[in-house]
Amino acid sequence: LKFDDQLDEALRRMPAWIPPACFAKRVASRVATRDRSVDLMPHMRFWISATLQGTLAAAIGYLGSTIVSWGATSVSAAARVAVDEYLHVVLPWSSAQALSFAWMCAGLSLLIACMSTRRPLA
Amino acid sequence: LDRDERGLARRCLQRDEDACAELVQQFAPMVGTVIWRATGDHQIVEDLAQETFLRVFRGLPYFDARAKLSTWIYTIAHRVAIDHLRQAGRWRGALSDDDAGVRLDTLPVDGTSPESLVEQDEMNQLVREHLAQLPDKYRLPLTYAAIDGLDHDVIGAMIGVQAGSVKTLVFRARQMLKARIMATLTARCRM
User: Fold this and answer.
1) 3-state class of B116 per DSSP?
2) pTM of this prediction?
């Protein structure tokens, strides 16, 4: 035989496994036993998972409503402070400074206009 | 055959113990052989074959009926064997080609070299020794391809590559094996 043929022959001759006589029955009965033990579980599993899910949902609901109520209180307080601030500080100041502020805006826009037209005119 | 396989799978799903035994009976020799070839350890084959079938029955409700049952079972057997090799720290699947330790360009073109004078029994021994030392990436496709009834498509599905790649891996594995055996025989001749 050539070397390659010998190699192929050696690979082919590697042994195959023969299962023991009782192997199939043993595995099948193990699977069946396992199935039966699982059969008893569905009701219990349902109630356990339902209880856990219910508890989780209640916890999330409580936490969520606490956060929302705290947030709403905070937001309303902040809004109240902001409105007071605006009415008593910002508005009077801006009324007093309105004319100078307007002149400043006008000057600024004039400056920008000059700068942007200088190059095309040149 | 496919219809038989599907019928058998359906009966197993209905928890028919005889059908389960029939399924095990039908596929156990191939499953055991795949595991034996993959691990090289005869002692562990029965336990791993049993583990394979337990995984098969656990996964049967999720089995895609369009696929081939036998291929699916052999794939599980392969994974069980790989898991065992990993746990035992014997998995060498990540080695690159350079780690294989052979130079394929040193192989003679024909098979009529002096090495062909070696006896078949000695060759069997040499193949077994050197095959065990190949990187798993090459060893597994070659050993699986030598099993009757496993074609390249099935092997590809088992190891997760295309059938064409299996062909390439088998070819390279053969070349490596040949190179190693020839190196051993040449060293023996020089002594």
Assistant:
1) helix
2) 0.64
